[in-house]
Every structure is written in structure tokens, then in C-alpha cells.
Queue: 4 jobs
Job 1
Amino acid sequence: MDDRNAPPLNPLPPVVWLMALPLIAMEVVLQLGEAGLAGGREAIGWRIDAIQRLAFVPDYFRQTLGQGMWTRDSLLRLVAYPLVHGSAMHAMFVVVMLLALGKFVGEVFRPLAVLAVALAATAGGAAVHGLAPGTTAVLIGGYPPVFGLIGAFTYILWARLGQSGGNRLMAFRMIGFLLLAQTLFGALFGASPAWISDLAGFGAGFALSFVVSPGGLARLRERLRAR
């Protein structure tokens, strides 16, 4: 018998909305400005202004790292660049993936663990992007934290396959497919350096999951003691 009181959509963990709503709100504001519905004539340039204020700039990062003089602006750019996207389509794809992956991971991980994975992937993806030789393209958009959630998703599958005696390599099918698609897309339309931050975000999310997953810290302590 169907439950008529059940919600039409499966509810998302609040932490997922906490991550997604700022991205949605930013894009709505930028779209209203570009459509001339808010902010007057100056609003047409809001996206460019947001990119200038929030984008992660590799040259700036390397300069800051070399001088060891971290400012509020340089630290902000490490984690704030996912707020602004190049277009509404860019933002839509990111939000859809964030909601889908966040729901899956959020049903297994605690809220703070989900946030930790997303932040680690955001900062880690930017840092690796900035340290990659010859990288000059600025970094915007929420794909690195999304790939961090893919890393957590992969860890969950990896752990479950290990418990059931399955082939753990099967857990890496999603990231393998995405990398293959990225390679084919790059061959057809030109490679983008953004894959560096995406792959780094995945690695950060997967690695951190060993610690922040339920019981992960206890298992890590046992392994360290066993050594």
C-alpha cells in the first residue's frame, strides 16, 4: 500500500543543502543581473566581477606560497572559487551532481564529515592546480568538491565490496568513466587544465574518507598500533 504522506522526492540531508544553496543563490543573482532585472546596468558585469574577486589564480597562489605571506584574500580564494561559475549551464551541472552525490554520501557519513570532504577537495584541488607546472588558467566552479564527493562515494563502494568479498577495483568505475570522457573530450575540443583540480579533488575526498567515515578514525588507530 502506498504511503500518501510520503514526500514526492527523497529528502536530502541538510548538509547537502548547506553546500548547494550558496551556489544556487549566487547563480540566481548573476542571472538576474545579466537579464537586467536587478542592479541596473552595472549588473551585467557582476559575473566578471565575481570571477575577479573569487577565482583561484595559480600565479597569485605561487607568488603567495613563495613569499609565505598569506592574506585573507589568498586564503579565501582557496575555498571560495566554487561559488562562481562560467555560465548557468556550468552551475546547473555542478548543482545536480552535488545534490545526487551529496545525498548518497550524506546518508552514510556524518554532516561534518561530508563538509570536511568537500572542503578538503576544494582546497586540495586548487592547491594542486596551482602547483602544476605551467598552469596559468584561473579556476572557478564547483567540480573539485563534486569530485571530492565522488571520492567519498568510491570509498563507500570500495569498503562495501571489501566486506562482501567483491572486486574492489569495481568501485573505481565512475572515476574511470569520467576520466575517459574527459580524455575524449579533450582530444576533440582541446584539453583543459581543470582536470588536474578535479582529479586532485577526487584523491582528497577518497583519502580523507579513510578518516572521517563512520569508524574510520578508530580503524586508522588500530592499523597504526599494529605497525
Job 2
Amino acid sequence: MQAESTHPSLLERIRDLDDQVAWREFDERYRDLILRYAQRRGLQPMDAEDIRQLAVMAIARSIGRFTYRPTVGRFRDYLRVIVRNLVHHHFADQGRTQERSMSDVLDQVDLNAPNPDHDEAWEEEWRLHHYRLAMSVVRQSLTEKSLSIFEALLEGQTVEEISRRFETTPDVIYKVKQRVRERLAAQVASQIRDESLPPG
């Protein structure tokens, strides 16, 4: 008997290609990550947008065959394979006299193919991606003062400077910092869980 889940992961939900709400959420969640990575690899904004659309199409074509295999990698690795391959094909096609069809490119993207290469640019964008997502959620739960204190810390201001500026004690500053960091860590963990599928 399968355990009930009150909150199916996003990957489980997009297995249903007709679930437009899930697909919009997927696109909103990964849009910036894909665009930033593609531009970091040297693509112009319009070309990066083409890569984003192709990546979503590749996921849609492959998600039904996707199974969780820890020996192969996590979802972030599969998405990296897709996006990096699409970027590679984009640059390779620039020297071709005949443009390949979209289907030809997508047929060469295997979501379940092992790809152990390390890509520091992708890893950095992935970390920043999850931080941005988490921060957008956490900031909604903070008071204006706590948010301002945390942003001042991020800007590199010292605890003493912030204490004077907000007329409070260093202890309060440290508590705000700890509370926000804990909430961020919990939110990132929740986001990562939403990128998982039960073993298939």
C-alpha cells in the first residue's frame, strides 16, 4: 500500500502533462536559474530564453521516464545535463549551414543518462537560485525592522554599527541573524524535498 502524501513534490505533479498549474510553477521556479546559467555561458538574453523553453520541453518529454536513481544523481544534475547539452548544441549549431530541428536536439537529451562531471558555474547558480527562492519566502515572515537588520548584515555592516543605527543591542542583532538563517535553512530544505521523487 502506497503511503499517502499531503504535499506531492513538484516533480510528481509535473508527471501529469495536463497539470498546467504545476507546469507554471515549475517554469516560474526554474526560469531564472536556467536563464542566468545560459547567459553565464555566453548566450545573449534571447538565446538564453530559447534554451529555457527547450529545457522545459525536454523535461516534459522525459519526466514520465524519469526514475530516482541515487547512483546516477539528483534532479539538479539531470537539469544541468539538459541545460548544458542545449547550450552546447546552440554553439555547435552556429557553425552549421543547416539548422537542426528542435526534435533532433531534444532527442539527444537523455534525462536518465549519468553525467558525473562537475560544473562549478552550475553549482554556484544552483546555490544562489535556492537562496533567492528561500529569501523571497522568508522575507514575508519578517518584521520590517528584522529584515532591515538582516539586509544590513548582508551588506557587511558590523554588529556594532547596526546596533547603533537601530538603537538596539548586539544580542538582538545576533538573534535576528540566527532566526533568519534557521528559517532560510528550513526553506531551502523544503525546496530540495520538492525536487525529489519517491524511488521508482
Job 3
Amino acid sequence: MRHAPEELSCREMVEHLSDYIDADLDARLRQVIDAHNGECPPCAAFVRTLSLAIEAVRALPREPLPPALKQSLIDALRKAAG
């Protein structure tokens, strides 16, 4: 489906969602996403839900990783980086 340059599909909106939630987008793209969310209730609900989930996780107390888990994660990342 083709759309005007100032419009985004739901899929395109989701591709920018992390930057949108972190307020790390230029003003024009932020306005386009705001307009999309104003016209697309499922996307607006998704953004609200994801934003609330991120807030909840950020509010959790930070606990240090157990050393064995930390080493396991480092090993997995090194292996994936190949």
C-alpha cells in the first residue's frame, strides 16, 4: 500500500518506536508518528502499553548480576559476534 511521505504504515511506525519512546527523533518524524497514533487506535494502545512497561522496568531496583550469569552472558555475546 502506498502512502503520502508524511504518513507511516503501522509497520514503519513500529520501526521507529524505540527512538520515539526515548524522545530521540527529529521533530518532523515525531509529528508524523503522533498523527499516525491519533488515527490508529491499535498503534496508540501499543505505544502506551510499551511505554508503561518500559517505565515499570526502569523503576525496578538495580541488582548486580550473579558472577556466573554475567560470565555466561559475556560468553554468549562473544560467540554471537563470532
Job 4
Amino acid sequence: MNLFGYTFQAEYIIGGMAGVIFLLLIFDAVQFVKLSSLKRRLAEFTVGSDAKSLEDEMKEKFSQINALRTAQAKADSDIKLIFSKLVNAYQKSAVYKYDAFREMGGQLSAVLVMLDEKDNGFLINSVHNTSTTGGNYMYMKEIIEGHSAIELSEEEAAALSEAMSGKKRGK
């Protein structure tokens, strides 16, 4: 055969076409195997134990995600509210027991200190006396930023320091 000045032998043309057909058959077989695998995986993915469709399953999951987002937003809002109220709550405290009059035992006198995050609050000093005049005297002092406008006794200063540091003293 002569085409455009080239001579072709029919055997070569048929052999070349047979080779191309063979390669196409191999390619087709590979694609068939891949498609079968993909169909099997899709069947496994879409088959549910209660025969729900994939679309129904996805709608349910999105609904659950939306419910979780709503719950998370409420939790975040609640946490912010708690933290805003916590600033003014008493967070630090100390109780310091002592003998007001050295001759008496039992440490019946005590100082109670209550402070917020910014060291604002109060202290109450209860002084116990069993002398003939007897009685129990209570004093309250306001604490602003860790200081009192009224001079503190040694026991009051120790209790205030303990409350502000957050460390309990050893007995």
C-alpha cells in the first residue's frame, strides 16, 4: 500500500491495531476492577442497619451538629455571666484564732477575713473576754485593695496577709 509516498505493509498496520486494541482491553479491565471496588465501597457506605437512606442520615447528623452549636453558645454565655459575677464574689478568706488576753487559754478570739479578687472586702475581729466584766466584743473593718483605713492589730494583719496570699499558715 502506498500513501503519501510511504509504503505500508498491511501486516504492520494490522499488528499495530491489534496492539492498540490489546492495550485498550487491559485499560478497560483495570477500569472495570476499579469501578467494581468503588461500587462495593459505595454500597457499604450507604447501607444502614435500619435501612435509612444516606440523605436521611446526613440530615440527622447536621441537625445534631446544630443542636451542639446552640448548646455550646448557651454554655459560653453562661460562663461569661458566671465570670462577670465572680469578680465581686468573695474568693479569698482566712480565719485566725488567737488568745486575746494571754492569761486565758483556748484561743477563743478570732479574726475572719473575706476578700474578692481585687482584695476588697472586710474583716471581723471577735475578742472573747471572760473577766468579771465578761463579754465578747466584735469589730468590723472594711478592706479596700488590701488595706484598711483603720489601724490593724497584729492578729488582723496576719489574717489579712494570709487571705491575700492564699497560703494557710501552719499551726
